């Protein structure tokens, strides 16, 4: 048993980054909440000019 744990550790460390590659339901729900918050912000405080509107569009595109 004591030899098994150190042998398993490198395998787990190499597999850990692969778990972050898939977008799960929590990730999608978080994105929907972010988008809803941005829509509410735009409704309450609309962009005042074309430059601010363009800046918000660019911010959304980069996210």
From TrEMBL:
Keywords: Signal. Residues 1-20 form the signal peptide. The keyword Signal applies. Residues 42-63 have a biased composition (Basic and acidic residues). Residues 27-63 are annotated as: Disordered. This is Uncharacterized protein. It comes from Teichococcus oryzae. The lineage of its organism: Bacteria, Pseudomonadati, Pseudomonadota, Alphaproteobacteria, Acetobacterales.
């Amino acid at each position: 048993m004591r030899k098994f744990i150190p042998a398993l550790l490198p395998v787990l460390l190499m597999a850990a980054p692969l778990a972050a590659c898939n977008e799960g339901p929590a990730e999608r729900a978080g994105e929907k909440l972010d988008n809803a918050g941005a829509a509410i912000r735009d409704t309450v405080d609309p962009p005042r000019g074309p430059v601010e509107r363009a800046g918000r569009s660019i911010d959304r595109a980069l996210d």
